[in-house]
Amino acid sequence: MSECDGGCFDLRVDERHCGGCNQPCVDGESCEANMCGCTDMLCDDGCIDTTIDRSNCGGCDVQCAPDQVCVDSECVGTCPESQTICGEACVDTTVNVLHCGACDQPCVSGQACLAGDCVAG
Questions:
Q1: Closest by alpha carbon to 2, among 24, 22, 27?
Q2: How does pLDDT run along the chain (121 residues), one tens digit per residue?
Q3: What's the predicted TM-score (pTM) here?
Q4: What residues have CB less than 8 Å from 100, skipping those under 6 apart?
Q5: Where does residue 116 fall: left (phi above 0), alpha (psi -120 to 50 degrees), or beta otherwise?
Q6: What's residue 73's pLDDT?
Q7: What is the model's pLDDT at position 113?
Q8: CA 60 to chain centre
Q9: If DSSP codes are grouped into helix, strand and coil, which group holds residue 46?
Q10: DSSP per residue over 71-117, as a string?
Q11: Same domain? 29 vs 51
Q12: How far apart are CA 118 and CA 64, in angstroms?
C-alpha cells in the first residue's frame, strides 16, 4: 500500500493511482500489475465493449444498420424480452440506474434502481 493524497492505495490495481500516485487509467481501462490496460477490445476508437457497441459489434469496425442494436456481439433488430432500446443499447429498465423505469430516467447518486423505481442504496 502507498500513500497518495492522504489515503492508502494499492498502486498495482488502483485505477486512480496505477503504478504511481495520481496516474489514472482512462475510461475502459483497468489497472493490473501497475499498468493500465483495456478490459474490453482495443479498437481504433479506444477500449470498446464489442458486445454492445453498434459501431464495433462483435469486433472492431463492425457496424450495425441504423435500425439495429448490438446485443451479445450481434446486430439485432429488437432487444431481448424484458429489455428496451434506450439510445443505442438494450437495457433492463427495472434495474438500470441510468434508465430506471424508462429511458433517460436516471437515479440520483447513491440510489439503486429496483423494479423500475429509484430507491436509497
A1: 22
A2: 899 988 899 999 998 999 999 999 877 788 889 998 887 888 887 888 898 888 999 999 999 998 888 988 999 888 888 899 888 788 999 999 999 999 999 999 889 999 999 999 7
A3: 0.54
A4: 93, 106, 107, 113, 116, 117, 118
A5: left
A6: 93
A7: 96
A8: 17
A9: strand
A10: ETTEEESSPPTT-EEETTEEE-TTT-TTSSSSTT-PPPTTEEEETTE
A11: no
A12: 32
Single-letter code of the amino acid located at 15: E
Amino acid letter for position 39: T
CA distances for 103 relative to 60, 76, 81, angstroms: 27, 19, 16
Sequence letter at residue 42: L
**Which residue range is the domain that position 109 belongs to?**
80-121
Q: Are residues 52 and 62 in the same domain?
A: yes
